Protein 1
Amino acid sequence: MNNAVVLVSGGMDSAVVLAIAREHGFRTHALSVQYGQRHTSELDAAARVSQQLGAAAHKTVHVDLRSIGGSALTDDIEVPQAGGEGIPVTYVPARNTIMLSIALGWAEVLGAADIFCGVNAVDYSGYPDCRPEFISAFQTLANLATKAGVEGAGLRVHAPLQFMSKADIVREGVRLGVDFGATVSCYNADASGAACGRCDACRLRAAGFADAGVPDPTRYA
């Protein structure tokens, strides 16, 4: 089995990606990042999901993005309860770039040529670092800036959910046996992981289950 590093946030999308990587025959190494987000219940969910889906290892790396702020998830900015125009205040500056860079470093240590992430360009909140162009550019960077890219067989960044709707992601998770009740997607979840039911993440998640015709297992506060 080849090693792969999978970014696991604790949300529904990354849980499905972890299951996909396992189905493709990879020995999965789950990576979570505590970056100063508003709550850590999603990190508890990441640990649960990683265990449930048979990850060979689960690592949490700490990065203090709260020290620079600039996002409703890392600063004293209210999480909006409805979508708006443009890039929302829940966008965390450079978050996916930083997370993928950490994943890249661990992949080199493990001798893994494959990195998986759960970015999505269909049912998402307008984040620029969820676009296909970003994933393609990061893969180019990975192969230019690493020993593994220069001397090895090359590195691949997989975003298997990139062009799937939330309903498609729900259906894929059901097919793969993902326990969505163990995941936390809410931007404003409480300490136990109960969701607010009003933020963008909650609304997109609920719509995904409704459109897929699958009962929503989310615990709401």
Note: The mean pLDDT is 94.
Protein 2
Amino acid sequence: MAKILISRDGVLEKTVQLTKERMTVGRHGHNDIVLEHQTVSGEHAAITTILDDSFLEDLQSTNGTFVNGHRVGKHFLQHGDTIKLAKYRIEFVADGIRPISGVPALPLPLAPARIEVLNGSNAGRLLELNKPQTSLGRAGVQVVTVNRTEAGYAAVHADGDRVPLLNGAPLGKLPQALADGDVLDLSGTRMTFRLG
């Protein structure tokens, strides 16, 4: 299962396995992860892990939550992300092992989304993303899956030797969050992700 490495002033203070589906971080003792410093809010942030995906959410903290130097409200965590909570530096380490959940997650309503083909013989074709997982491409050549989670949509290179592109950059084997207008390129076929 994924874990976080918590450091302060360059010293590793603790390593915490993300064993629960939702773990809160804050100064108060009832949090799953307690960071005892006055610059940390009583209930500062939460990390939600569903299957292989982890999401960080700021809980309206006073000093904010930052990932890789950017202030975030909600963020899809990827291996190696650096989280900053007040005086603490937290490294997210993903290992692909799923946490055990006693209660199945209830899907939250998401904004409808679709993929629109931009070029080629299927230009203008729309594909509604109404399933938990939608596959794009050809098996054995290049496959991208788009996964629906409670936090939104994420794309991952699932199969094939050819590396697909997301907004011109290689799409890896770890899920990457999709935003409205993002462009996927599968062997020259370009398609855009649309929300709403």
Note: The CA atoms of residues 25 and 33 lie 5 Å apart.
